[in-house]
Every structure is written in C-alpha cells, then in structure tokens.
Amino acid sequence: MAVTDNSAKYAWHVKPQATVQAIVRRSGSDIIFADAIPTDSTDIFGLILDKSSFYPTAGGQVCDTGFISGANGFSFEVIAANAFAGYVLHIGKVVSGAVAKGAPVVLEVDYERRALIAPNHTMTHMLNFALRKVLSNQNPPVDQRGSQNDPEKLRFDFNARKGLTPVQIQKVQDIVNKSIESALTIHTTSVEFVVAKNITSLRCMFSETYPKVVRVVSIGESAETMLKDPTSAEWQAFSVELCGGTHIDNTAKAQQFAILDESSIASGTRRIVAVTRENARQAFENLAIVQGQLDEALGVKGPQKLPALKECSKSLQNYVMPVAAKKQLEVRLKKEVKKTIKEIKNFKKKAGALAMKKGQELAAASDAACVVLDIDNLDGGTANKLLDKLTKAQPDKAFIVLSNDPANNKYTCAARSGSSLDVNAIVQAVAAVGGGRAGGKPNRSQGAGKDSSKYAEAVQLAKTMSKA
Hints:
By secondary structure, the protein is of the alpha+beta class. About 35% of the residues lie in helices and about 30% in strands.
C-alpha cells in the first residue's frame, strides 16, 4: 500500500478527492483492519487514504479536524489525524452512512479552526526571534526546548537561567506586535538541508536528523534572497526556521499578540504562554478595564478608598491579561494599598482624637441619666477609651456610644452603666436592628449591626430605650 500523499496539508480551502486505502479499528488492545464501516456504527475508526489535506499532529502543532464524506450520505467526523511511517491516519466516528475500502471520498478540513492555529504557530517563530533579541547576552544562547500550538494559545519552552523581568517580557511582546503591525510576508521555501543550514540566522535543531530537502519558513524575507548571500549579517534581523507546520501568509493576520504567562517548568527551562487574534484583543481589553478601575479607585477619598483598591486586586487576579502589565499593576497596587492603609491609620488617629473630644463635650452638656452619643469615625477601641473616660468622670450615669461604618456596611455600639439601667439589653436590641449581635453584662456591653443603612433606626431605638 502506497504511503499517503499529504502535500495538500499546506493548501487552504480545498476539498480534494481521495480513495479509502484501509480501515482500522481498535479491538481491546489490538488494532485490526476492516473491509468496511457498517451503517451508523458508533465505534471509533481510522481511515487511511491515498491522499490527504489534513495536517497531522507534528512539530508541536495540533492536527486538523473536519469531515470526510462519500456516496449515499456517508459522513465521517475527523477528530484527530496522526502520521505513522508515511501514512496519515484519520481518526473519528461515523455521522451517517457507511463506507468500504476502495471507496472514493471528499475531504473537508475545518479551515476556520486551522485559521486560529496558524497565527499561533507563526507567532511562535516571532516569539523565538524576539527572545533571542531581548536575551542576546545570555550564555548559552536562547534555544527552543519545546512548543505547542492549538486554536486557543501558543506555548514556547526555552532555556534560561532565570525568569524574565516584566520589562523584558514587555520588550519581547512589543517586538512581536511590531512584526504584526509591519504586515510582513511569510515565505516558505523547500531547499536542500546542506544549503539551508548556511543561512546565518537559521534556527533548527542541528542535533536532529533532517531529510535531504527541508522546508524553510522565513518572515519578512525569502530564503531564495538570503541564499544569494547566506552569511550576511543582515539576515539576523529576520526569523528563519526549519518548519513543517501550517502558517498564515502575512503577520497582520495574527492581529495582536499577548504574553499571558512566563514561568519555570524545570531547572533552567522557562515556558511562555501567549495568545493571538481575538484572545489577545480580549486580554488587552481586560487590561484597560482594570487600569480604568485602578484610576477610579485612586480618586476615591476617605475610608472607601481601601475597599476600592481591594476590588481592583480581585479584578487583577480574575481577569486574563498580558502578564508584563499585570505584574507592573500588582507592584503599583501593592504600593497604593500600603500607602492607603497608612493614610487610613493617620485619619483614624486624628478622627479618633476629635471623636473623643466631641463625646466628652456632649456628655458633659447632657443632664440625662443615660446619655446616647452618635459619633462619626469611632472604632471599637476608641469607643471603649471614651467610655472609660466618661464613666470615670460621671460614675453614676449610663453611656451608650454608636458609630456608623458605611464603608464596611456595619455600625458599632458600646455601653457602660454606673446605674441600675441594663445597657446590655439596649445594645443587643440596637445590634439586632441591623441583623447583628451583642454581648456583655448589664453594666457593660458591646455589639455591631451588619447593615449600615439601618443605623438611623438603631440610634433612635437606643434613645427610646434609654429613656424607658
């Protein structure tokens, strides 16, 4: 049986005819040959054809998917394509009809799906090129350790002694996006390996065994032009690789490029995960959303600023965005949170001193047996200090101190009593208005409500019960 003619795997939007050469299926742990696929079979089969336009999994690129159709309504969904010893095995399941060995069929690759894979593969080449430029002083030089290209993303593994800084990641990303903006032509040329390896900028695995004739993929200039003067330093400005994958014909078709992650996968080996086209556009849009959110948060005044910054932090972790900008935002946000906490502490310290003074003045001016104080910006610790001072100055009175905290959607209430008044009962009732709880003794109690919108109602209840 002749090997599969797979030259059409580089073609786009074609529906070639082919002939079924063999049908295989799994039986337990064995692979057996069959003469036909029966009507509406639910088993997984493999079809070997004399020709194929499906790209089989190879070189870090996932395979094409699609359909194979034939006479009498036969339709076969190809879910995987693999190459073995020159044969392409189309793995899938019957959608309808039946087919037999020797039958003519028509191949229909899902080119919309391939159109998502191809820019990822091409930009993997540009990423390799950009890394070598940004890490040009690295010794040993940057070299590929592995890659994967699928419809959602691209992944590139390379040697490095340490992780890239956000600035380096940004430079790499900028170089790739510059190539997209420049709308560079992608050239594919088949030449003998002994000739191709003379191109000074050629990237390949020289430890591997290559066929006599290889496929050179160059971006921005053709291999034919380079081979006129293969040792010219000029070619260092271009990406040139040996590659058997499918590619776009112009870098502009990648639209945008975003690096989403850079991390270690083993000692001396780093991994970059990136996206192109719509996924990249969405990543940059997410970045703009969080940047806008942070700008708004920085404009907030008072105690509400810290919660706003914390919401930014949540968004930063939840949104998928370019990792260089994300890391820079994380550093900026951390500084702003630290700065804001310090500002809040200073604010509370000053506000607490003013609240203490106000509370003492209001209590001194009241002749009520139980004094209810509604004071802004009073935390629990300051409230207890105020109560200590008040009861020391007027030991025969009862005092109830309330303070609203809209930023955290709660309010606090604390009380002391030097009389027979049961302030614990009052504080429990006041906390319950906002769905909260309180605890203590008849002469000493504290609690909190969980709904700041109920604060006015809680204050009124405290005043009413204090007079009962």
